[in-house]
Automatic annotation (TrEMBL):
Residues 578-642, 675-733 form the CBS domain. It is a multi-pass membrane protein. It comes from the Eukaryota. The gene is CLCN4. Belongs to the chloride channel (TC 2.A.49) family. One of its GO terms (cellular component) is endosome membrane. Gene3D superfamilies: 3.90.1280.20, Clc chloride channel. This is Chloride channel protein. It comes from Myripristis murdjan (pinecone soldierfish).
Amino acid sequence: MNGAGNLMDFLDEPFPDVGTYEDFHTIDWLREKSRDTDRHRKITSKSKESIWELIKSLLDAWSGWVVMLLIGLLSGTLAGVIDLAVDWMTDLKEGVCLSAFWYSHEQCCWTSNETTFDDRDKCPQWQKWAELMTGHAEGAGAYVLNYFLYILWALLFSFLAVSLVRVFAPYACGSGIPEIKTILSGFIIRGYLGKWTLLIKTVTLVLAVSSGLSLGKEGPLVHVACCCGNLFCSLFSKYSKNEGKRREVLSAAAAAGVSVAFGAPIGGVLFSLEEVSYYFPLKTLWRSFFAALVAAFTLRSINPFGNSRLVLFYVEYHTPWYMAELVPFILLGVFGGLWGTLFIRANIAWCRRRKTTQLGKYPVLEVIAVTGITAVLAYPNPYTRRSTSELISELFNDCGALESSQLCDYINNPNMSRPVDDIPDRPAGPGVYNALWQLALALVFKIVITIFTFGMKIPSGLFIPSMMAYHHHDWIIFKNWCRPGADCVTPGLYAMVGAAACLGGVTRMTVSLVVIMFELTGGLEYIVPLMAAAVTSKWVADAFGKEGIYESHIQLNGYPYLDVRDEFTHRTLATDVMRPRRSEPPLAVLTQDTTTVEDVETLIKDTDYNGFPVVVSRESERLIGFVQRRDLTLAIKNARQKQDGVVSSSVVYFTEDAPQLPASNPQPLKLRRILNLSPFTVTDHTPMETVVDIFRKLGLRQCLVTRSGRLLGIITKKDVLRHMAQMMNQDPESIMFN
């Protein structure tokens, strides 16, 4: 045999990129888990050899906590910067602070010595644009000029946002949560969590929210936090070289994102567990908790809102709720479920139209048009003009002696015997009625405009139009529980429950949603109303369709996401789904010791399969293992460069011992190390219900179908998804990726 003494298994010395995946492909969770176990075993055995190796093993064990600390610090800092920038730029549309142009309206008047309590929003240092340019603060001319400049600023901000996204980071658009869910399920989207995406998403999120569009920063903050997680993963080979371990970090980063978005660290951990994560071991739960804690602490240290809270709309209620109020809470849940269904269907229909028509070719024009319409319609109504966070804050807050809102305009009668601050017993003034019809218009406007805004080529979170409530406490129903001088009904509580119901109807969140809302209000007393509304909205919405907004966008984009919540009840077998079908050419396979390098290269060139089964011979079709296409390509390329005597006619063998070849033959190439000797197999009579469950729970990329050890075919994740779509009378070709 020629060169038998020099034969080597070429992967004894690992080369770059082996075991990695191509873009828009799914990872093999079992393979990643196995590689991490091997790595850990090696480190543990080496740690007994010397003190230095022991220190290295301790550093490796602590690297996870270090990554969590860094994610929490960076995501908390970025959230604080975004909040401060949005506050300033939102106010910039209306005016400027003369003493320091970088101050928002509120900060400007804080520093003023001439601000009175009654006119706390007015101070000489803050001037609207019309007053600054013409010297007139009031009148039709000043109103028109302020109106025009408000629209101009909004258009400028949105144009900058969409232009930066288009030119520098196309992946920075949208909320990011559908893609994060898909990535956490094992899909590779290179660049989606890259440095450029992080930078552009942070800048354009500020611009998009400041432009006044009907969107929020909560979803994009999850994307920003996951970008931070991906950035810090690259510092540690434990995470950068293992896609499974990387996804554990990204799950924790998602928790940190929600923690700073809503000021709800525990809600963030539950959101990651309930809504976005695919694989969530106990270790990830602890680390998510730590990352969310550090992120919340960092944001609290920055104190962007100046109220020592993590969010602008933090409220505290002290009034108890009554059993009879469960009825309106449940009705709010019903409304939230119906609204969620309407929103999902309308938004998906519009996004599908955007993808399939000429509209999708002009994203800049679409953003400019929607911003223009939003600004023109929003300015006249004070409830749509202000930022969404300020609006929620006003609707959630209770009326008190310090409130200057129109919603608290109750009539003061000097002849009344009751004290002045006894607000529940005072009749509503004209401000309350005025605010109610303005809120009704704001609700309709937000419902319609959000449908067209979510999904545009700018960073856009899902802002849910908050609900409003109004009470008349002299009604007969309230007589039994209203005590003199006490609130009968808390309108802010109804607004909060309504907002939770709507968010639940759109996203189908339950546990995490209730905890987030509970952390927002700081009151354990309102958990039951929130639970009632959240569960009702989910039941009502599920009656019309199981998919939430994020799952619907995953389906629309054709991502290979196998939802753990979907049930497969059809009586089909593995043989009905496996490839090749009867009309298709036979399965492309490699033999264990008779295939040449040229045969392998031709097979790779002529097919686009992600891997190939290895069999004993084409006659027997007895299965040996499975080899990945990418590993095969890299191994042959590397062998040609580094191993002497490897030519096109060299035999490739996957066995332990080299085949017996004539002396005149060129040196063979041993590739046993890249062969998976334990590929997952099922028999041809395995029910598809079991196969789907295996793919879900083990995170498989493909599984081979055999009968008595003889290879019959292959089932990939894409085949499973297409079969499920077919069974549900959907288009199987909508699943585009592998």
